[in-house]
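Anyone up for a design puzzle?
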């Protein structure tokens, strides 16, 4: 018998504390010396990231202890902060950005050794995305160098694999420079070649990159440097070497990221996949974005294991050596990282619709009678009845003269429904990036709302990845227009089909999604309020003080450089249209954010105050671009619940008082 209770007032078992406790963020996976490795970012340990190792039949152990924090600031977004070989874990430590190594053997606990010197200006030398030479005598990685003039240099460097003396400098040599950005340096199995990805302004790594190949000399210098794939309007990504000495990579020249191989001895390239409605690739916002690995069983090469994205859902597929493609029927819809073992299996960081992130090992050998999945890091136990979990429904709808996409989450509660004649309120989410996409994996941060009787639509607006290059490029020159149109079109579709209450809608978004939120509030009267989390408000200001990685991103998104096209930057900036705001706003921001600095949020809050709009502004101490500390994640969620109850006229089951920073609310 279903109990009738007003939407928004349901007493959910999913608390803000549970969202945080279950929110250990799993990162990349790796395999070496017969062991699985993965990283964990732990909100309850002040967001500290660690690397975990597990040998077969043994319990996982942390490879390093506090106070070490495995995280790099290169590009500010980081990624690629660690890698392993047969003997060592190499990692970048957050506090000083130096590169360290630690033996990962099980016989005893080892202390990390610094491989790079302490720069005179703290954190001015930063490292990421490295690999070891075949004999492990040297390391090659990306270095980001910040000089006294605040200019940022990116380059590839060779670092001796020896402990650096505190009184001497490491003999670090630059082997590639001149491009604005570098990633993914990788040695061939015989050590004769080094490959990498490079690109320059104004391209982003999903717009146009070069896959570069060079011969390695005995002194580690490079010769015969040449580009073998990619171009100013073609994005190559994820190069990895096969055991047979072929370079495997993805390229979107067909309009979809497909996989190719290249034989450096005969300069021969071969296309391996021919997808026209799905792709093996994703925007490289962080280092270490790998979507395919070579599948081996001992000394036998079985083919490639691929992470294939179709309509923003991921699949694991196997391309065997004969060119036959098969799908491994896993329960996962979002796969974030992949690595190959030596026994025909892969390690995955993956999520399902109703299972949180986990690390699993899956046997991919042909002829297996059933799917074999071994959990290494099980999904966090929540003990939540599945009746409380809302399944994402993929929807497509008309937006102008084209189709847009989203995942819709209806309210879900154990034997609960709304009152007679009532439709649920709606939260619209505009994802960040904006070149990324909403996924279908379990997010307790969404279930937090749906289990309270609030519907959610997570919009994959034009410009999102996972739908091919043409769709991804819909935002070119149109940021602040196409994304906003698609978010509004999603509400119109859901209201017209009778799934939500058209008079009770709010919109939320972080980073680039914050601009989408504020623009939507300014051009539409459909929303009762909006939440901007570390969101963009002033594009002129952003063009002048954001970090190097994104400093020319706006050229493409707005269709012109600054200040030559200043009028467009003003026109698309929410701060210049504050008079069009007519509903309450909640603004949440980290005070150490270098991607979207706090002055962006402060500016829109000042404008709301000047107009007399109800608003609340919370500045979280010690947070960067996105919240990592458990107490801040909890507070942010509770503040949003209070805010939505205020503007949508419902009283949450666990009533939360307005913060001191709120102005104008009654």
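Challenge accepted. My sequence:
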């Amino acid at each position: 018998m279903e109990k009738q209770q007003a939407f928004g007032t349901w007493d959910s078992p999913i608390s803000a504390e549970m969202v945080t406790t279950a929110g250990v963020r799993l990162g990349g996976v790796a395999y070496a010396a017969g062991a699985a490795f993965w990283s964990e970012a732990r909100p309850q340990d002040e967001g500290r990231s660690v690397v975990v190792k597990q040998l077969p039949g043994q319990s996982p152990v942390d490879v390093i202890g506090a106070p070490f924090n495995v995280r790099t600031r290169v590009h500010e977004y980081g990624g690629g902060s660690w890698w392993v070989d047969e003997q060592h874990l190499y990692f970048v430590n957050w506090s000083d950005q130096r590169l360290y190594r630690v033996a990962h053997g099980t016989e005893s606990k080892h202390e990390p050794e610094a491989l790079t010197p302490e720069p005179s200006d703290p954190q001015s030398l930063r490292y990421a995305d490295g690999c070891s030479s075949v004999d492990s005598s040297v390391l090659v990685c990306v270095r980001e160098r910040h000089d006294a003039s605040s200019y940022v240099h990116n380059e590839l460097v060779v670092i001796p694999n020896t402990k650096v003396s505190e009184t001497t400098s490491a003999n670090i040599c630059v082997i590639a420079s001149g491009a604005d950005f570098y990633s993914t340096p990788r040695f061939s199995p015989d050590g004769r070649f080094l490959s990498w990805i490079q690109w320059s302004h104004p391209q982003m790594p999903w717009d146009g990159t070069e896959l570069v190949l060079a011969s390695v000399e005995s002194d580690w210098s490079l010769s015969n440097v040449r580009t073998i794939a990619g171009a100013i309007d073609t994005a190559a990504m994820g190069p990895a070497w096969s055991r047979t000495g072929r370079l495997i990579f993805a390229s979107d020249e067909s309009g979809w990221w497909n996989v190719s191989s290249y034989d450096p001895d005969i300069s021969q390239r071969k296309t391996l996949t021919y997808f026209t409605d799905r792709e093996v690739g994703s925007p490289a916002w962080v280092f270490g974005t790998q979507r395919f690995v070579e599948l081996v069983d001992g000394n036998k090469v079985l083919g490639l294991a691929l992470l294939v994205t179709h309509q923003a859902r991921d699949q694991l597929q196997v391309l065997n050596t004969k060119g036959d493609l098969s799908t491994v029927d896993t329960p996962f819809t979002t796969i974030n990282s992949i690595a190959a073992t030596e026994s025909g299996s892969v390690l995955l960081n993956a999520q399902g619709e109703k299972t949180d992130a986990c690390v699993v090992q899956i046997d991919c050998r042909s002829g297996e009678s059933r799917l074999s999945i071994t959990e290494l890091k099980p999904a966090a136990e929540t003990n939540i009845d599945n009746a409380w979990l809302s399944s994402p429904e993929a929807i497509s709808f008309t937006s102008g003269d084209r189709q847009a996409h989203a995942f819709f989450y209806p309210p879900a509660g154990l034997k609960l429904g709304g009152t007679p004649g009532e439709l649920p309120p709606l939260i619209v989410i505009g994802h960040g990036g904006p070149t990324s996409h909403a996924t279908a994996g379990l997010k307790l941060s969404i279930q937090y709302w749906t289990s309270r009787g609030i519907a959610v639509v997570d919009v994959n607006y034009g410009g999102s990845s996972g739908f091919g290059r043409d769709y991804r490029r819909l935002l070119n020159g149109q940021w602040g227009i196409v994304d906003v149109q698609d978010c509004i079109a999603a509400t119109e579709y859901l209201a017209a089909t009778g799934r939500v209450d058209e008079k009770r809608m709010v919109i939320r978004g972080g980073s680039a999604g914050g601009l989408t939120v504020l623009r939507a509030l300014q051009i539409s009267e459909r929303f009762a309020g909006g939440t901007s989390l570390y969101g963009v408000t002033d594009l002129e200001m952003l063009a002048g003080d954001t970090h190097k990685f994104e400093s020319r991103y706006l050229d493409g998104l707005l269709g012109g450089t600054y200040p030559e096209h200043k009028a467009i930057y003003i026109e698309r900036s929410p701060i210049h249209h504050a008079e069009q705001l007519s509903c309450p706003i909640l603004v949440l921001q980290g005070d150490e954010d270098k991607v979207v600095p706090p002055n962006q949020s402060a500016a829109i809050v000042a404008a709301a105050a000047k107009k007399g709009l109800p608003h609340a502004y919370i500045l979280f101490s010690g947070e960067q671009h996105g919240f990592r500390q458990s107490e801040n994640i909890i507070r942010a969620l509770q503040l949003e619940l209070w805010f939505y109850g205020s503007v949508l006229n419902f009283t949450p089951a666990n009533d939360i008082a307005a913060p001191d920073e709120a102005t104008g609310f009654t």
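A detail worth pointing out: The first strand starts at residue 3 and ends at 4.
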